[in-house]
Amino acid sequence: MAEKIIMLACSAGMSTSLLVSKMEATAKKDGVDYKIFATSAADIDHQLSQDPHPDVLLLGPQVRYMANDVKKKTDNAGIPMDIINMSDYGMMNGENVLQAAEKLLGDR
């Protein structure tokens, strides 16, 4: 079983799948075992209700307008949340995004 679960949410969950691949490659290189997946913003409530639920949620910059509502939900679930840096998202910088997730998790 994965050490931590990192969820990325964007409009449809598709544009973020390349970023997930790059994050997984970085995690593998770093020797850490994370389950990293992308989903649509519409699926956030469902994912937060799962057992096990994600340990951290990163929102794609294109759905940043949802941040306040999502933050209330993640706070209630005890899950840290942030918005993916727009530059890192645009450049598909999996290493920086993984580091941001680890910082939220307190792993770095």
UniProtKB/TrEMBL annotation:
<feature type="modified residue" description="Phosphocysteine; by EIIA">
    <location>
        <position position="10"/>
    </location>
</feature>
<keyword id="KW-0762">Sugar transport</keyword>
<dbReference type="InterPro" id="IPR013012">
    <property type="entry name" value="PTS_EIIB_3"/>
</dbReference>
<dbReference type="InterPro" id="IPR036095">
    <property type="entry name" value="PTS_EIIB-like_sf"/>
</dbReference>
<dbReference type="Pfam" id="PF02302">
    <property type="entry name" value="PTS_IIB"/>
</dbReference>
<keyword id="KW-0808">Transferase</keyword>
<dbReference type="InterPro" id="IPR051819">
    <property type="entry name" value="PTS_sugar-specific_EIIB"/>
</dbReference>
<keyword id="KW-0813">Transport</keyword>
<keyword id="KW-0598">Phosphotransferase system</keyword>
<keyword id="KW-0597">Phosphoprotein</keyword>
<feature type="domain" description="PTS EIIB type-3">
    <location>
        <begin position="3"/>
        <end position="108"/>
    </location>
</feature>
<protein>
    <submittedName>
        <fullName>PTS sugar transporter subunit IIB</fullName>
    </submittedName>
</protein>
<dbReference type="InterPro" id="IPR003501">
    <property type="entry name" value="PTS_EIIB_2/3"/>
</dbReference>
<keyword id="KW-0418">Kinase</keyword>
